Amino acid sequence: MTTEVGSETEVKEKAEESAAQPDQSEKAEEETEEIANAEGEEKEKEKEKEKDGKEGKGISRYLPTWLKKQKSLSQTSPTKEVPATEEAVNKVTQDEEGPTPEVNGHAEEVEEKEAEKSEQVTEKEAESHSNASADTEPAKEEKVEESPKKSPEEAKETTEGEGAEEQKKEQEGEAEGVEEGEGEGQASIFQSPLRLVRKTKMKLVVCQVSLLDGTDFTCEVEKRAKGQYLFFKVCEHLNLLEKDYFGLTYTDSHEQKCWLDPTKEIKRQIRSNNWQFAFNVKFYPPDPSLLTEDITRYLLCLQLREDVASGRLPCSFVTHALLGSYTLQAEFGDYEPDQPRPLDYVSQRTFAPNQNKEMEEKILELHKSHRGMTPAQADTQFLENAKKLSMYGVDLHHAKDSEGVDIMLGVCANGLLVYKDRLRINRFAWPKILKISYKRNNFYIKIRPGETEQFESTVGFKLQNHRSAKRLWKVCVENHSFFRLNAPEPPPKARFLTLGSKFRYSGRTQAQTRVASSLIDRPAPNFERTSSKRISRSLDGAPMISITEAGRDTAENGRELHSDSKDHDKTQDEVLKHQASISQLKRSFMEAPPPSPPQPNQWEKRLTSSPATTIRVQQQQVVSEPQTEAAAAADNAISDTKEPAKTTEVEIEETVVVQEVSKAPKPGLVTVTISSPPEEHTREQEVKVGEEVEVAVEAKAVKQESVSSESESEEEAEYHPNVSVSFSNTQIPEEKEEEEEVEQEKKEEEKTSEQDTSAPDAPALPVEVSQPVETTIREGEEDTGAEKKNAEEEQGGVTEESTDDPMLTPEEAPNGLTLPEESVTMTAEAEEEPKMNGEASLVEAEPRPQVICCSEPPVVKTEMVTISDTFAAQKTEIATKEVPIVHTETKTITYEAAQLDGNGDGEPGVLMTAQTITSESLCTTTTTHITKTLKGGLSETRIEKRIVITGDCDIDHDEALAQAIKEAKEQHPDMSVTRVVVHKETELAEEED
Amino acid sequence: MAGLMAGFGHYTHAVVRGVPASLAAEALRMTDAEVDLSKAQREHEAYVEVLRTKLGLEVVELPADESLPDCVFVEDAAVVCGDTALITRPGAESRRRETELMKGALKDLNLNLVEMTDENATLDGGDVLFTGREFFVGLSKRTNQRGAEILADAFKDYAVSTVPVLEGLHLKSFCSMGGPGLIVIGSSEPAQKTLKIMQQMSDHRYDKLTVPDDLAANCIYMNLPNKGHVLLHCTPEQYPESAKVFDKLKDHMLIPVCNKEKVKVDGALTCCSVLINKKANI
């Protein structure tokens, strides 16, 4: 930190903090920053940006670093020690990386962007490879470069010196950068992979977090930092110990407010370079009086004040007045009779959406009656009243019922509420819900049969789009876990190959946090209560509604697209193919040692035909385009474009499908060679993918034919709330390992067979009655005792502009079967390591494949099919309403057979989930299907990842492929990549509308 | 206000209305029963006397209107909760004007009035069950979804759940509150079914008191200073078996009230008054 530190001091400090781990890199960055500071103007601009715009801030900080780096790259780089090696095992070619950084260093905007991308990529690579040679000079450079790269985006903006433009640029850059980072980055990586490599950690990003009191907290985190890190930083800043009720949110490219997953890298979640977050209450404690510390109650009060003022938490006039009066008492103390114009300070703050003078007078009147009440007491009274409000802690989501009627779904501590207008028309308490799942834009809950009912019923709702469905599903999973479980369930596993959402609640449950709270032994921390001025933030107030609305539009489009995709997907031929492939996978799995991912059990991963993914890809592409044009406009355009894009993708078929099939004939680890065929696609790198990933994948990676079928896998996931889950240890840090373990466990425990879209399923039964299915499942479980989880992640949205944001949809089918060892994790990383795999057996890279789909072994399908049938059947039968929708998409449906009695060990409600994890970060959509089959003690896990990379010509598909494969390998070290299929679809990326 | 949802059953005022002579012949009814007007009037006088004298409520007595044969059943004209009064739009066309006088009376009590002006909305107060924590609105011949929505909008603090009224005129024709968290419910199948729905829809747990006669399940619970739990319920003469059930409520001050004539025109105990809690403060 040199002379100019002053301006950036905050940043630096933050950096330092974050740096704690990667000190060297951070220091280097700081240095760079300082250098940048030297460039006072830029810095100032940056500062200004920081102050003004959240985005700007973060970026600006980076900018200086970039500049500095550029100037002193060589210097800084050496100084910086790259800590990149953290996780990366892969070897990165230094050479490649080297060049890129330089480019970045030049700070040409375009180049920078690319560089950023490359940086990101390199970072990824770095992670994977860092350990190896990467550490050497190149690594340093990379690190430096990376930070610069990132910063360059900002810097570019800043350098240009036009705040608005800068911001826009930043946004664009961010969006592009992020997306590209993964997708494009690959391409760039290829070129300059070496540079970026390894020291990704070194790069710091400035995060801006809006706190509940209206202030912003800024800190630096490593670019690759996980959500947890930032969250802890914020809690530390707030001096908050009972933090499990809280979380960080970010606004995605669709203007939707999303919870930052603590277990995942921030960068991969936010999808843009907009490192802005908000600190919010995530789980509203039903009885705030049970909280241990006043500071926790205070923060809850702040959230509720905002909720009330924004109208999100509706209440009556009298209640508004009462709550407002407690707020005054807490913030100002006793009513001051001498105050000249008491109404003024009341009217200056927002207590209610429809605040008027009458209310303010009432507030004052009530305030007088609170004389003598301490702030803590006032907060307590506030909470005692707020908690009784019927909408307290209810997270609303727009949806339609089976008949297309607009409703709202409310997720709360007790279960799921259904509202029509303001009326509650139904309620599903958690104990009544056997399974929660989503497919595409459909959200399903399976209801425990009532006293007089014989069969379970499934109720379906239509969300605006698959993202909305997924978000709702995640919220349900988290709320159920938090409020109903003693300990969180272990997450499913792997990142890449697993397409199905492996998502799970990773934090402490309410029961755990209460225990932890009881152990808090510190003097009550002093904190200052600030006035509630800011109560009406747009962000806070609007999130739910505005978001949803925004979502709706997209959703609609998405729906259409989906339908299309569904049709495609469901083509019988395809289905059959899928089935066949699945069966193969199963076989392989059977033979091969079961992959580790236990998680799948609970979460059923479904191999979705990739409709959803495709959609995403398209969306991304679309988005990116707009960005290129105008960053500012991008957002709006994006949603729209996305939709079109989705459709387009479907139509277009120049998708490169990389299939990574890991076959584990024997229970052991099977080495799968992943041939990454990213060939020549884009530019530079040809590396192309032929990477043979030696990842020993237990599971066989089934490749889906991504082309026709659109992987919707991401969109599908299941969760069995009732299941008593054994704890999963921390899933967070190392997903792979944990997941693997979990999978194994699950495999053992869960015998449920989940079906994904596989052809067999689709044809036969999609619609059939659930009952039969269940029975079948049971049989399967008993017989094979195999659990199959398929998660398919299919297509990733590609952003054209971003160029290389290939959506990687890895499908992982973790089967935990007999072979424990075999828990293979396939980590296919598309990013940079095409080389790594080197063996591009299957990959067929086309020069310009815009879409790259890496579908890994879709093992599950066959089983999946059956499941799906049941699923559909149930729906149709039972629901009468809901079901209908689902049916059509046979492929996608992943079902868990479930919680079969026999199979599930103590996991009644367990998940046989197919989880689709979408790496939303870039343009890449990955769908992972994980199939686990337990037969005769052998467990086979097949993971099929479908990666859809959507992008402009610029996108380096090869890189994307390579990255995908890398990730897959990393994720599933134990698994081998057996097959990589690349389908290239050239679409008119521009299909919009 | 003592706070949200405090003091369930606390009442200070009651609004009632006289029995018009037209009730005997013109009041709406689901059966063909003949009503003895004088008996009905005596019955109602006794009812009001209980409220005023025995329970010490401030009774606001509105004059009968011969053109409104059902006007004695004031409950349907307004829903009062806390400081807010919702003036309803009764489902029966002939009863719409009953709200006029009611509105004036409630306004005089300084309640915050909300009027149901939507012409697509209908709601009878008899379909509204307030449990102290939430509302249940019966969707019946007299009450529709829109009416329930408006009620939900008027009482934002509370959850408002809709339940189907499978049989009988109103939701409260077969159920009512017998105490905090205690639902008195008829034993008929439709009544039990409705109760199940209510239980499913609620985040709260309710005890239930099942009485053999659906109509006997309509009683009036109050929690009054110096008197504690008070329950106005059917007489043993009218529903002997059900009365025995009420007798088991040891903690309540039980006050049997005759409703023999008014029940012929579908009038229940709760129908004949609108209870209000006007606290000293606020």
From TrEMBL, chain B:
Keyword Zinc part of the UniProt annotation: no
One Gene Ontology CC term in the entry: mitochondrion
Protein known as: Dimethylarginine dimethylaminohydrolase 1
GO BP terms, alphabetized: arginine metabolic process; citrulline metabolic process; positive regulation of nitric oxide biosynthetic process
Organism, scientific name: Sparus aurata (Gilthead sea bream)
Keywords, in A-Z order: Hydrolase
Active site positions: 170 (proton donor), 271 (nucleophile)
Matching Gene3D superfamilies: L-arginine/glycine Amidinotransferase, Chain A
Residues where substrate binds: 28, 70, 75-76, 95, 142, 265
One Pfam family cited in the UniProt record for this chain: DDAH_eukar
Family: Belongs to the DDAH family.
Sample GO molecular function, one term: dimethylargininase activity
